[in-house]
Amino acid sequence: MSTVVSFAAGALTGDGIVTRVERGGADGAVVVVDATPFHPVDHTWPDQPGDAGAISHGGDTASVAEAVMAAASDDGAFAVGGDIPVKRGAEGWTWLVAHRLDGAAPDWLVEGAEVTLAADAGRRAGLSRGHTACHLASLALDLAVADLWRKDPGADALGTPDFEGRANQSSRIHEDGAVDEYRLGKSLRRAGFDTETFSATLADREASINAQLAAWVAASAPSRIVTDGPTIVDRRTWVCELPEGTAEILCGGTHVSSLAEFASISVTLDLSDPQLLVMTTTAVPAS
Fold first, then answer.
1. What's the rounded Cα separation, in Å, for the pair 26 and 23?
2. Partners of 33 in the beta sheet?
3. What gap in Å lies between CA 258 and CA 228, rounded to an integer?
4. What is the pLDDT of residue 24?
5. Which of 16, 13, 20, 107 is nearest to 53 (CA)?
6. What is the rounded CA–CA span in Å between residue 46 and residue 41?
7. Rounded Cα distance, 134 and 39, in Å
8. For residues 215 and 264, what is the distance between their CA atoms, to the nearest angstrom?
9. In the predicted model, is pLDDT for residue 25 greater than 70?
10. What is the reported pTM?
11. Longest distance between any two alpha carbons in the chain, whole Å
């Protein structure tokens, strides 16, 4: 059975039974447990880093450097992280959360051991703020450039022309922030986006995004994750009840429970390379 996960509900601790220990991996030992509160980094879209923390049994504790995705095939293959040869959810594979240890696996970490898992609360909170801020920034960016489309590119979660979906090529979330890259090449211009006007009005667009983000933070909108099931392979959706409407975005990461958790969210736009927009998002937690 795929790993049962509880991070979507905000859990930081939980109990489980060890189902697999791989002691000889090139990047260190990994431990698979039947249920975990740890959020793993995704192997196909690694935007949010995995949780760190600890696994304990009795009075013994092992440090977890990062939770990662793992998968076991019906014919006995086992792969971790970037070595997984298929996309998440592929038939014939069981999907797992592996806990990569900070060092070798101790002797007490064996299959069948009953353990307690605890994710680092500060890291989780910072990454959750970073991920929510990243989504809000992308929605505000779409609103700020909505007038630059000459063709319909499709709609985002608020019904705005979907610049994010058309142009985003990478997203990297960190504690209290994110960096997103958008390709402004010929394909985007052919899709109907006015890159010349965007470049000429970059400062105004940035100011518009930051004004929108300030308004959303001031609204203290509720935010949550809705799940289709309890396992790591089940679909999860980020839902945020913004004044303009309820935004729903498919997302496997973690998020804040309310925008009241922010003192502010702001972005800077960098177009040093005319073909590449870099948006840096910074979140300041509420005191």
1. 9
2. 18
3. 21
4. 77
5. 13
6. 6
7. 17
8. 10
9. no
10. 0.97
11. 64
